[in-house]
Amino acid sequence: MISADLALALPEILLAAASMALLMFGAYGGEDARAGQITTIMAALLVALGLNAALGVADARSAFGGAFVVDGFSRFAKALILLSAGIMLILSRDYMQRRGLLRFEYPVLIGLATLGMLVMVSAGDLMTLYMGLELQSLALYVVAALRRDGARSTEAGLKYFVLGALSSGLLLYGCSLIYGYTGSTNFAAIAQVVTAEGVGLGLLFGLVFLCAGLAFKVSAAPFHMWTPDVYEGAPTPVTAFFATAPKVAAGVLFARVLYDAFGDAADQWRQIIVFVALMSMFWGSVAAIGQSNLKRLMAYSSIGHMGFALVGLAAGTEAGASALLVYLAIYVVMNVGVFAFLMTMERDGRPVLQIEDLAGLASRAPGQALALGALMFSLAGIPPLGGFFAKYFVFVAAVEAGLAPLAVAGAIASVIGAFYYLRIVKIMYVDAEGEPLDGAMPLMNGAALAVSAVLISVGWLPFLDGFGLTLAGDAAAQALLR
After folding, report:
1. Is 164 in contact with 458 (CB distance < 8 Å)?
2. For the packed helices 294-315 and 266-287, what is the interaxial angle rounded to 10 degrees?
3. Bridge-partner residues for 61, per DSSP?
4. Where are the bilayer-spanning segments (predicted)?
């Protein structure tokens, strides 16, 4: 019944209604004068919906003829997406206000992009997939170019739009081929055809195009070309948002499509994912070494980390899906802490984001340096921090699936990537003190930095045992049983 379907999609309906209401509230209520209030309301709504997703019942149910799926897999992802989006919106308010960038449309666009992500991770049909993906993308194109008078921001938005349109075309062409050779856009129906008839050449081409479009959205090599410029050109809070919620949405959507629709064709799509994972791990690790800008460094870091996450996906097993979810959760926590700090890096009221600007930070702000250092060690995969176990889980899943060479390659890429993370720690603690940064860290940013550092240092054990590892395993099992 339609009422039951609507009830299942109630969080998405509430977010859509709130976004439109806040848009009208801002447009007819003094515009940017109410931007702060709209930001606070939207952030509170996102956090509330995120907590609801985290605490909700994880029974697998579908709506609208199977086009919209709610299960443990999607709830896990929605909790991460909503909470990270809400936290980033909270952290960005002070930064955007001080630079005159906080306009009422900013939180509304973040809300609409988040809505698209929620639809993506609940997609049970190619049409739903594309609708959610484009809703997210159209909002993010505008957010990337939010600094209207900045050449870099405009360039970032334009590059993201042009390359995003190309990737959307590839994905849509892949969807059309899949529909043509299976006669359906529903994942369950596609899975039945694949089980009965296998994957022919035409369907394989469709799968390749589909994976190429999704690899762009997750910023995996060789479809990563937009990432460094967009990360550098967009305002730092926007970059922080790009580095968290959209990664989770794209990664989970990748798994949703391959597991639900092509679960019996793992031998065909595994080769694609292995290639993309290898390219991403090594390109992200090597290209970041020469970077001097922290945002560009984090862009290449994200490319590398998405490669590690895809190692779990390549396994094609329940353990691999569980490892993917855990990896994304720990990756989000690490990025929240790092970007909470990057938003506060200023000198004479202007943002500074060069690595050498961190010189001597340990002597000026030992607490901040300790927390940032812990996050860098975790990103590098140094035990016993959370980042090490994130990589450990995906490597174990790969080995159990017969992909031991991929796990070995991932370990080598991790060692290479550790160089640029450890270089940041060395600059903070060893290099001569440079010109100090401005002022004290805002309370919210300091809290986000501290909590993130604690979670990945000593707090990840109860985190994984509670909402993380156990729930991720249950969620992955639900995805595989569909």
Report:
1. no
2. 160
3. 70
4. 6-28, 35-55, 75-92, 104-123, 158-181, 187-216, 237-259, 271-290, 297-315, 321-344, 365-386, 392-422, 443-463
Q: Rounded to 10 degrees, what is the CA torsion of 321, 322, 324, 326?
A: 170
- Which residues are 186's β-sheet partners? 125
Tell me if 397 sits within 8 A of 319, measured CB to CB. yes
**Average pLDDT of the chain, as a whole number:** 87
- How many CA atoms does the CB half-sphere of 389 hold within 13 Å? 20
More confident residue, 469 or 109: 109
Cβ neighbors of 452 (< 8 A, separation 6 or more) are 333, 334, 336, 337, 338, 340, 371, 375
The answer to which of 87-101, 147-161, 197-211 has the lowest mean pLDDT is 147-161
On the question of pLDDT at 461 being above 80, the answer is: no
| 346: helix, strand or coil | strand
- Euclidean distance between CA atoms 12 and 216, whole angstroms: 25
Residue 362 token pair: 């340990």
Q: Which residues lie below 8 Å from residue 174, measured CB to CB, with a gap of 6+? A: 205, 206, 207, 208, 209, 210, 211, 212, 213
**122, 130 Cβ separation under 8 angstroms:** no
Choose among 343, 342, 374, 337: nearest CA to 355: 342
Above 50 in pLDDT, residue 90?
A: yes
User: What number of CA atoms fall less than 13 Å from residue 125's CA on the CB side?
Assistant: 14
- Give the H/E segment covering residue 258: helix 245-260
